[in-house]
Specification:
By secondary structure, the protein is mostly helical. A three-stranded antiparallel sheet has the order 1-3-2, covered by helices on one side. Helix 1 packs antiparallel against helix 17 and helix 7 packs across helix 8.
Length: about 425
């Protein structure tokens, strides 16, 4: 019932878009209306700097917890903070408030502080090299895939010591990239989380232009094409890794992993774990390729149907951004609401040493706060709404690049099929998890 219902909603939305949405709307509203100059100066200036100081302090606390804290992930702040508060909470905050990662990134804060101190001493901070344009967002896609591999493929992803090593390694790469190519350039291409949040911030009603906060209609930031190399790969990683996460919880995948590991459990357990890790890495890569190739095929079919003179891959790519967000929301909604509560007591005892710094160490999370039916309805609603938004963004782009209305509609038949495939596939994975 839900599969057919979701597909029907998309088809009806497609018909209504074709009838009612006859000219481009998103691009004309992308810039939005500027808020008060004083408010912008305060938020972009002192408030941002204060948040950067806090972000660095929290970053140090999490890393110290990972290095020196209790090895039990349930008694250590680092796993919950990284996998729940940071990985699941920030996307939602970004969709509501815009690119807040500019103020919350500890790596950007450290780079800003270094540049400020250098310029204070009279020296000029300049990048060491010019970033190769052909690389585009490929470094960011690789880094995001590596984070997903740590979370979903590594045998002990919640190990505080493993997380400490991962934090140190990523910090080295992020700071080296900013020093080598410039802060903004590396954030736009190589810093995986910055690239991720920049994409998601296009959904938000707030953005900053020339130091001024502006308010706009949601989703208008998704107007236009995405021509930076590696962008398809990055969004495919966003979608494909979450898809694999859902599929890896099914009995089919769990049985397969058990069969791979079983011959080595007694005599060579380390080899068994390695084989399961390699299997999961293959599954992650397969999920990314499946999502990316399905999108490429839909764009190729759309091009053939309208006899377009060039590829349409760059034109419709931003329509996948709302889908990537709702995939995250649908898959991790319960985890964030339930597991996120544990951050409250852990902040009072981040190292698991029996401390009670803020008087919250004995707070008991409510593990039954969400009923199973509520979880399912949120998942279904999020997936359907996200795909309808994706259809609208793609349709707006179609009527922008195709003056002929019938050609614009024909170009969207393939995108409709892709959205139905993504929706039903996502619901199937969620229902089997």
């Amino acid at each position: 019932m839900f599969y057919w219902g979701a597909a029907l909603v998309l088809v009806v939305s497609f018909v209504l878009l074709g009838v009612l949405w006859r000219k481009p709307l998103l691009g004309a509203r992308e810039r939005g209306r500027a808020l008060a100059a004083t408010l912008s100066r305060v938020v972009v200036g002192p408030v941002r700097i204060a948040l950067q100081v806090v972000s660095v302090a929290l970053f140090v606390l999490v890393w110290v917890s990972a290095v020196f804290g209790d090895t039990d992930p349930f008694r250590n702040l680092a796993p919950t903070w990284i996998y729940v508060i940071f990985w699941l909470g920030l996307p939602a905050l970004t969709v509501v408030l815009g690119y807040v990662w500019r103020a919350l990134s500890p790596w950007r804060a450290l780079a800003d502080a270094f540049v400020w101190l250098r310029e204070l001493g009279g020296a000029e901070a300049q990048p060491l090299a010019v970033y190769p344009e052909r690389l585009g967002r490929w470094p960011g896609a690789v880094a995001l895939f590596a984070f997903a591999a740590l979370e979903l493929a590594y045998s002990d992803p919640a190990s505080p010591r493993a997380l400490a090593f991962a934090i140190a390694l990523y910090t080295y790469v992020a700071l080296f990239g900013m020093a080598a190519f410039g802060r903004d350039t590396w954030e736009e291409n190589g810093e995986a989380f910055a690239v991720l949040y920049r994409f998601l911030a296009r959904i938000a009603p707030f953005h900053v232009v020339d130091g001024r906060i502006r308010v706009r209609w949601p989703f208008t930031g998704l107007a236009g094409a995405e021509r930076v190399p590696g962008s398809v790969a990055f969004i495919a990683v966003m979608l494909g890794t979450v898809l694999f996460d859902g599929y890896s919880r099914t009995t089919t995948w769990q049985d397969l992993a058990a069969r791979v590991e079983a011959p080595y459990v007694v005599d060579r357990p380390g080899l068994g774990e390695l084989l399961v890790t390699l299997l999961s890495l293959g599954g992650l890569l397969a999920g990314v390729l499946l999502v990316g190739l399905a999108y490429e095929a839909a764009c190729a079919l759309a091009r053939w149907m309208v006899n377009a003179p060039r590829s349409l891959v760059e034109d419709f790519l931003r329509s996948l951004v709302p889908i990537a967000f709702v995939y995250m929301l649908a898959h991790y909604f319960t985890l964030f609401v339930v597991q996120g509560q544990f951050a409250v007591p852990l902040l009072s005892d981040p190292l698991g040493r029996g401390w009670d710094l803020f008087g919250t160490a004995h707070v008991v999370p409510n593990l039954t706060v969400i009923a199973p039916n509520t979880t399912w309805y949120v998942q279904v609603g999020a997936l359907v709404a996200g795909h309808v938004a994706g259809l609208a963004v793609a349709h707006d782009r179609a009527v922008t690049i195709f003056p002929d209305r019938r050609a614009a509609l024909r170009s969207q038949y393939a995108m409709l099929g892709l959205m139905v495939l993504y929706t039903v596939g996502g619901l199937w994975v969620l229902s089997r998890g």
